[in-house]
Specification:
Layout lengths: L3 E7 L3 H15 L4 E6 L6 H8 L4 E4 L5 H10 L6 E5 L3 E3 L5 H8 L4 E10 L14 E4 L4 E3 L2 E2 L2 E2 L10 E2 L7 E5 H6 L12 H11 L3 E12 L10 H18 L2 H24 L3 H16 L1 H9 L9 E2 L3 H7 L15
Parallel strand pairs: 1-2, 1-4, 2-3, 6-13, 7-14
Antiparallel strand pairs: 4-12, 5-13, 6-12, 7-8, 9-10, 11-13
Helix pairs in contact: 7-8, 7-9, 7-10, 8-9
Length: 339
């Protein structure tokens, strides 16, 4: 088996390490080394690891540079053929590593892969962050097999096929180490949220594939670092999404998509305001201000990418399909639009 490292990025997540690291050690030690990369925690995480898990390697990052920067810094120090990026709030199951590595070994064009992600608190359901593999629509809105916006399906085996997807979740992402380095890792400016989608998009530009392997299943708590209703989370998602679009869209789609997003993001902002969410309204405004303020940086990044109209994009508007046409499940979408 190729050299594999499970790398858990931690920031003040001692309570999750206490709860979930035992299952990682139990079900992973035979197939991979286990590393915790700590983003300068202040809750005693490192001391806890040294006292209770001496077999786990610790990489101490000098600062909290978020998910993207934290992993970039840590993985520079990890010697492996495959990295498994694993959130600290995930319970893994028996034989969760080998099926995914075997799949990636069978096809060197696979850059990244994820298992099926189920909810820890509702194990019969998929989990929001990844479910059974991710897609985006023409306007950059992400969704999953098993999750459209806030509607999450029960896992009834309906997505038990090993298949290509557009993006693999950063909550549990298997990635080929050489490809991660080739592509320059995550975009550290993202800090957190959307960086895995951006990475997968850049991998597709470079001719690689992204897969989901349903033989492997893990169970995710979700929302461990930022609460789901956090306006800072709204800001990061909005800012990083439009940055990702500008970097990756082919030239012929750039102007129409950006015009549509200005309208759609405006509608979202005013809906937040009407619903009493002024902080979320302001988060959307700040996200767009941040993008335009840093436009020269985004333009330099765009010039570094060879743009192609890649596959596995939903050639429709998932907002319209879900909220107006009442499509609640991935299986209700027209699969002819995914090409």
């Amino acid at each position: 088996m190729p050299k594999t490292a499970v790398v858990i990025l931690n920031w003040n997540g001692k309570k999750f390490l206490e709860k979930f690291l035992p299952s990682v050690v139990l079900h992973s030690s035979r197939d991979a080394g286990i590393i915790v990369a700590d983003n300068n925690s202040s809750d005693g995480s490192v001391e806890f690891l040294k006292a209770h898990f001496p077999q786990v390697e610790i990489i101490a990052n000098p600062r909290n540079s978020g998910f993207a920067g934290g992993y970039n810094e840590a993985l520079e120090r990890v010697d492996a053929d495959y990295y498994i990026l694993l959130n600290s709030d995930i319970e893994v199951s028996e034989n969760w590593i080998k099926p995914v590595i075997d799949l990636m070994e069978s096809d060197t064009s696979i850059a990244a892969c994820q298992p099926v992600i189920r909810s820890y608190h509702n194990p019969e359901k998929f989990e929001y962050a990844g479910a059974a593999g991710g897609f985006i629509d023409l306007y950059g809105y992400p969704f999953c097999r098993g999750r459209l916006f806030q509607h999450v399906e029960d896992d009834l085996g309906q997505y038990n096929d090993t298949t290509e997807v557009f993006w693999a979740t950063g909550a549990c992402m298997f990635v080929r180490a050489g490809t991660f380095k080739e592509l320059g890792g995550f975009d550290a400016d993202f800090f957190a949220h959307m960086e895995e989608i951006d990475f997968c998009w850049r991998a597709r530009h470079a001719g690689y594939k992204v897969m989901v392997c349903p033989v492997s299943k893990v169970f995710h708590v979700g929302g461990g670092t930022l609460p789901k209703q956090s306006s800072f989370k709204t800001y990061l998602n909005m800012r990083n999404n439009i940055s990702m679009l500008y970097k990756n869209l082919p030239p012929q789609r750039l102007a129409p998509v950006f015009f549509a997003r200005l309208v759609l993001d405006g509608v979202a902002a005013f809906k937040f305001l009407i619903d009493g969410g002024f902080s979320d309204f302001w988060a959307v405004v700040r996200a767009h201000m941040s993008f335009y303020r840093r436009f020269p940086t985004h333009r330099r990044k765009r010039k570094m990418i060879s743009h192609e109209d890649v596959s596995c994009i939903y050639r429709g508007n998932i907002v319209v399909d879900h909220f107006l046409r009442r499509k609640k499940k991935f299986s209700e979408l027209s699969l002819k639009k995914i090409r």
